[in-house]
Structures are given as structure tokens and as C-alpha cells.
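name: query_chain
kind: protein
chains: 1
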Amino acid sequence: MEMTPGDDAVERHRPPDEDELSKVGTAGDQPNDPDAETGTGLYNAVHDELLAMRKHRDGVTIGNLAHTTAILEVLGAGDPRLAYNQLKHVLLSLDQDLAVTAAGYSLGYASDYDSHLGRLDDFGRDYTYDQRQARRYSDKGIEQIARHISSEWMLEASPTLTIEVVKANDEVLELVIRSERLAIVEMRDPVVEMVSSTGKRESFPVDWRPLAGEAGALRQEASVRTDQLRQPDVAVSVLWTGEAWPLFHLAVLRGLDGASLPLDLMTFGARATVSRCFLDKAGSADPP
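structure:
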């Protein structure tokens, strides 16, 4: 990846004075980002993994990315080669910022040195900074890269919630609610409510059962049953709040007569609502 200075590099990238340096974080300090102290779980995980690879003698490599969790999943969907190329594209997209350029050197994308200090010296020679100044710019660049990945690539890390209809007839509507998320994405337990046709909400206590899953992922499920004879117009609402909005899916198991009991799934933000649709005389479905 090309990250070398132009002919006017010395003028454009003059060494910063002490006031400028004080505004750039150091590796031992809190990140310079104003939200860093309350950073998301994904941001913190990506930031820590970038710092760990920066310290490695080889910097970012396909092999080192294979040992990450957040970056590997978010940028590569489990493929370290794809994660390597995607991270390179992230650096190129942010390359107008000198701090990101410094991070590109220290991560090994723009320098062939086999140590972090050597890569910092390489950046310092190209941009006329001493090692301390180069280190501070690299720290700031790592923060910016982590913030960019944790915000722009959030969809790839989005938690998913599946509502599965396992029994549906005139007497019982039974649902299995299954949630799955990366352990680094901070989410609360889903909240299940029963919603009447008048809009009244009642909390429905559920027993969440942990499920086996891939390393780095958390899965759980719970069952919900409503009495359709006594409460035919009650909808089931699930609210799942946290670091990211979840992706919702509705599944109806084979063998269930969906034509006799059509269901409607409505989603908005962090909430999904499942309700029955009632057929009018013309055969079209109307909400309760």
C-alpha cells in the first residue's frame, strides 16, 4: 500500500509543537476520541486487537489476523485473507489523515521493518518526526481506524433475533425466540411483552436458556405461549436494546397451517412485534 510522502512533505508535515502533541493521545493514555471512555464493546475490541498486532514484529499479517476475534469477524466474516484486504482498504480510505498514515506504517502496511520501533522510525524519516512524535501520531491513527471500523462496519457485527413459530392454531400461539450475538457486542437480555389491541403492555417473564455456539458468539433461546382462545388479539413484542440494532427474522416450521392462521411481523429499531392477522370476508388480512 502506497503511503510515502510527496516532494512537499516537509512543509506540509512539519514537526508539531508541544501544544499540538498534547492533543494527540499516547499509547498509555486513554484514547483521544471524546467517546472513548464510554467506547462500545466493539470499538474497544478492535482497538485492542490493532494495538496487539502493532506490537508484533511482523505487524498485520494474515496469520496474525487469524488470531483476532473482532476484526476477523467484522472485516472478514471469519476469513483472515479477506480481513487483511478489507483493513488495507480502510487505511486507504482514511489515508488523507496523517495519523492514519502513521498507523499504516506501524501496522506494517507501509513499512517492511520487522519491529514496531523500526516502522515508527521509517515513518519519522519520511515525515521528519522523531520517534516520540511518530508514536503519538500512530496512537491517534489506531483510535481513528478502530472508531471507523466499529461504526461503518456495524452491520457485519449486528446481533440477530429469530422468532420461530413452533405451534399455531385456534387455541395456542407458541413461539421460540432465539438470540445470537458476538460476545464483544454489548447487548441486554431481550424483553418480551404481551400487547393488547388497546396498546396495553404487560411484561412476560421468560427463562433464557444458553445454547452452544461458535467461539466468540453468545446464543440463547426462550419459549413464549399465548392462549388464543382467551386472548385472540394479543401480540408478542420483543425489545432487544444494546450497542447495535438487531436483525429480526420470522420463521414458521413446516407442517403448520400458515393459511389458516397468518402472522404479521413488524419491526422498528430494536423492537419486533408478532401478531395474528384476521381474514375479512374478501380473504384479505387485517391486523387485530
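note: Residues 4-38, 278-288 have pLDDT under 50 and may be disordered.
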